Amino acid sequence: MSLLLEFLDVRQTAWGVLQSLGPILLFFLALQALRFRLPREYLLGIIKGVVLTFAGLVLFLQGVQVGFLPAGESLGRSLGQIGSLWLLMPVGFCLGFAATIAEPSVRVLGYEVEKASLGRIKGRVIVLTLSLGVATLMALAMLRVTQGISILYFLVPGYLAAIVLMCCAPPAFVGIAFDSGAASTGPMTATFVMSLMLGIAAQMEGRDPIRDGFGLIAMVTMAPIIAIMCLGCIQAFIGRER
pTM for this one? Predict the structure, then answer.
């Protein structure tokens, strides 16, 4: 009952979402009054969409705060007590894949890529590639936190590889890749996965949550960039072979 009441108390979340959407809506209404002059039916449809977006964001973010954050922390503490690298890496891979598949912004990106490319680049391929890239980096993040490896050993080679791939991948995939890095670090990753990593670092002896628990988002941002440009290189190679 207390959990239900906590979920229903959406005042703080609603205020935060209103602060985000409010200026956009006011700016649009000002342009409508001064410049656009859109038909009334079209304007009402936009306002209905904004209202539904507001309600959806409030419910989603409230669920993230009430459910995903505590769940990630609890799971992280349990896994941190085990401390087995050979268990944590597969678990990290699976959780990274699941969190990315469930990320709304990744779904939107896949849909927009397929629409803009007239179906030549399939949205489900983009989503799957993103998810596998993030899952691989999540497994490496588990290696990092258990062994206390500096994040520089992951980020520097990773971004150097991304720079090299920029010269090899088709230009369209370069743009998609860098947008993918931002799309994959949405509410699911920044809440559940980060709280999971902090919980693991807090439970393991000799690990500092501040030093070892953070840096995951930087690694997750890098993963889709490399994965999508590799996909572009593969597609370009297959196209030449045909």
Answer: 0.76
